[in-house]
């Protein structure tokens, strides 16, 4: 497969202690898990109060997407031309454990709704009014080949002009998000959308 | 693009362990839904379609119930298709919403347990059991999981990435799932009534279903194809459907365009029809936007309940049986029309030549999916 037709026009890497936009550190903190996300939300000026209702997976997706799309994203696309393809290892296990523990007293619909991994996609669709193709896959580790194939295929079929794709995983207080903005058109500092480039960004050594 | 044919199908449900047994049960108006008084699952009585123990003569100790029904379903479909699961050009696509979530209910929550509950753990066991060479693709996308798994399989095949795809999905109803839907006040305490004026909510159900799809047509059989698919998001609400139905319509429109068939060619619709007030209204709006309001539509939730990650697959299998048998299944539980926009809800067995079916699902997170299933030659047998 060629795979040279599409472009990675922005990237974000969110791990405990650090958030990187493309190659630049945009946030650092000693905090972990939910505390890290709350601090990042405040300091980065995300300004989307639904944040406080969300589980950690959706909070992480919201902060990562905010960094990814800020100053980068054209609104020239129609809602159905933008899609989201996410993957992770642990689905919604933290929200599952949280709901289950709380449900012994009182089963809460506000917690139960987050016990599906694709809710983070739904949250981002609501915030940005994206209505295009969406999919959530579960895999043992970040599978650059798969994400590259699936997203390229959607673009080839002309179902999408732009796609936010990548990895969003939360286990305990360990956060691991790596999102890519992939577009049909190249922009200023974009790199080619290939499995190799996805892997290189996911595994980037950003110095502790 | 290559064409994608159905080689075989299975449903493993409280109504039967093969596609034929299931279809026959539906033709006889049998339902798996009943009222349960099971303190382990719920403090109050509930209405659902569950496996009544024991499901298997002898249990495989290494497999959970979720894994075992999935394996039994795949085994039958693979045998019917006569394919080699070890072949290099064959892959497994799995769909589930909650998989082995019941483990959370039985043990202290540790890191190891969380990892064990992961769908990749079950997928690896099942892939090893059948000897699949490639790692399985796992779809976990709320109630569209089964439909999205079929769409993913179709794309893998028509793009020429594989020759054969086994698509299988399952979910098991546990206290976790039941309590969650109960907390939404979304569970009916009686048999659900899809599209009915008096509908009060869903019944949950458990089961597994499998499709074997290939770029080669099956021999000695009328070719049935998965000819189109589309996915969309409402971008409106996390747990409530679109107010307009425009986004489900968008998914339907994409599926029709990919299949290259006009809406007028659709002979029947297998809708999601969960029997919640809002879902069924949303679907009625979408079907009207698509110009499909006159087409016979059914919901199978009155027979199976809502089987979550299996629903899209299980209902697609029944739709394929309908096409092959030229028989549309009625909507069990429906009596009085009660959706915001008119629908032609199927209320008795309809026998007539059938060529094309639209299958839709929608779910939490605002997701919608639609596929077109087509039979290529007409052979009307009564």
The count of β-strands of chain A is 8
Q: Summarize the largest interface: chains and residue counts.
A: A-B, 49 and 53 residues
* Integer-rounded radius of gyration of chain B: 19 Å
Element order of chain B: H for helix, E for strand: EHEEHEHHHEHEHEEEHEHEHHEEEEE
| CATH superfamily (homologous) name of chain A | Thiolase/Chalcone synthase
Largest sheet of chain A: 8 strands, mixed
Would you count the extended β strands of chain B for me?
A: 16
How would you describe the overall organization of this protein?
The complex is a heterodimer of chains A (208) and B (382). Chain A is an alpha+beta fold. Chain A has one domain (3-202): Thiolase/Chalcone synthase (Peroxisomal Thiolase, Chain A, domain 1), CATH 3.40.47.10. Chain A has helices at 33-43, 56-69, 93-103, 109-112, 119-128, 144-156, 195-202, and strands at residues 7-15, 18-21, 24-28, 82-88, 134-138, 162-171, 174-183, 191-192. In chain A, strands 1, 2, 3, 4, 5, 6, 7 and 8 form an eight-stranded mixed β-sheet that branches. In chain A, helix 6 (144-156) packs across helix 7. Chain A starts with 6 loop residues before the first strand and ends in a 6-residue tail after the last helix. The model of chain A has no long low-confidence stretch (mean pLDDT 94). Helices cover 31% and strands 21% of the residues of chain B. The two termini of chain B are 35 Å apart. Chain B has two domains: 5-214, Peroxisomal Thiolase, Chain A, domain 1 (3-Layer(aba) Sandwich), CATH 3.40.47; 227-375, Thiolase/Chalcone synthase (Peroxisomal Thiolase, Chain A, domain 1, 3-Layer(aba) Sandwich), CATH 3.40.47. With 382 residues, chain B is α/β, with parallel strands linked by helices. In chain B, helix 9 links the parallel strand 10 (268-270) and strand 11. Mean pLDDT of chain B is 96; it is low at 378-382. Chain B has helices at 19-27, 65-81, 102-106, 111-117, 119-130, 145-158, 175-183, 246-259, 277-289, 301-304, 311-325, and strands at residues 5-12, 33-36, 46-49, 90-95, 137-139, 164-171, 204-205, 207-214, 224-233, 268-270, 296-298, 327-328, 344-345, 350-351, 356-363, 367-375. In chain B, the strands form four sheets. Chain B has a six-stranded mixed β-sheet. Chain B has a five-stranded mixed β-sheet with strand order 1-8-6-4-5, with helices on both faces. A three-stranded mixed β-sheet of chain B has the order 2-3-7. The chains are: A alpha+beta (208), B alpha/beta (382).
């Amino acid at each position: 497969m060629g795979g040279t037709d599409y472009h990675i026009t922005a990237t974000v890497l969110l791990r405990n202690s650090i958030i990187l936009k493309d190659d630049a550190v945009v946030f650092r903190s000693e905090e972990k898990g939910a505390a890290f996300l709350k601090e990042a939300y405040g300091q980065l000026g995300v300004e989307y109060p639904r944040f406080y209702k969300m589980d950690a997976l959706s909070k992480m997706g919201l902060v990562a997407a905010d960094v990814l799309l800020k100053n980068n994203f054209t609104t020239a696309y129609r809602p159905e031309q933008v899609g989201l393809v996410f993957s992770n290892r642990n689905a919604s296990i933290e929200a599952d454990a949280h709901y289950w523990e709380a449900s012994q007293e009182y089963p809460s619909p506000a917690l139960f709704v987050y016990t599906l991994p694709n809710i983070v996609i739904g949250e981002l669709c609501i915030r940005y009014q994206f209505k295009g193709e969406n999919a959530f896959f579960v895999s043992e580790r970040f599978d650059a080949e798969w994400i590259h194939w699936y997203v390229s295929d959607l673009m080839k079929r002309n179902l999408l002009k732009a796609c936010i794709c990548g990895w969003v995983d939360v286990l305990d207080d360990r956060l691991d998000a790596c999102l890519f903005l992939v577009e049909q058109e190249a922009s200023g500092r974009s790199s080619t959308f290939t499995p190799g480039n996805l892997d290189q960004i996911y595994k980037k050594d950003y110095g502790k | 693009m290559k064409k994608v044919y159905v080689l075989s199908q299975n449903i493993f449900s409280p109504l039967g362990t093969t596609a034929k047994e299931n279809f026959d049960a539906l033709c006889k108006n049998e339902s798996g839904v009943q009222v349960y008084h099971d303190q382990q699952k719920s403090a109050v009585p509930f209405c659902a379609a569950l496996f009544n123990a024991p499901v298997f003569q002898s249990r495989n100790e290494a497999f959970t119930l979720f894994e075992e029904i999935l394996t039994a379903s795949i085994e039958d479909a693979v045998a019917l298709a006569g394919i080699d699961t070890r072949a290099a050009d064959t892959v497994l696509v799995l769909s589930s919403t909650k998989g082995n979530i019941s483990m959370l209910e039985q043990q202290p929550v540790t890191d190891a347990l969380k990892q064990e509950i992961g769908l990749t753990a079950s997928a690896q066991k099942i892939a090893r059991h059948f000897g699949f060479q490639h790692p399985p693709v796992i779809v976990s996308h709320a109630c569209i999981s089964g439909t999205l798994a079929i769409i993913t399989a179709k794309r893998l095949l028509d793009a020429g990435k594989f020759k054969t795809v086994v698509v299988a999905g399952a979910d098991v109803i546990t206290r976790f799932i039941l309590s969650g839907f109960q907390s939404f006040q979304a569970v009916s305490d009686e048999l659900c009534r899809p599209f009915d004026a008096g509908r009060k909510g869903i019944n949950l159900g458990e089961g597994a279903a499998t499709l074997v799809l290939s770029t080669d047509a099956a021999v000695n059989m009328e070719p049935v194809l998965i000819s189109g698919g589309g996915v969309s998001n409402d971008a409106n609400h996390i747990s409530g459907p679109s107010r307009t139905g425009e986004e489900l319509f968008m998914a339907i429109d994409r599926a029709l365009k990919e299949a290259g068939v006009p809406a007028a060619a659709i002979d029947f619709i297998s809708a999601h029809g969960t029997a919640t007030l809002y879902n069924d209204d949303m679907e009625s709006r979408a079907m009207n936007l698509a110009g499909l309001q006159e087409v016979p539509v059914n919901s199978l939730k009155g027979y199976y309940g809502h089987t979550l990650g299996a629903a899209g697959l299980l209902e697609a299998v029944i739709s394929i049986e309908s096409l092959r048998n030229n028989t549309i299944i009625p909507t069990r539980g429906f009596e009085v029309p009660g959706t915001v926009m008119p629908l032609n809800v199927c209320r008795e067995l309809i026998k007539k030549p059938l060529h094309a079916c639209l299958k839709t699902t929608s779910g939490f997170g605002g997701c919608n999916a639609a596929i077109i299933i087509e039979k290529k030659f007409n052979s009307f047998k009564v």
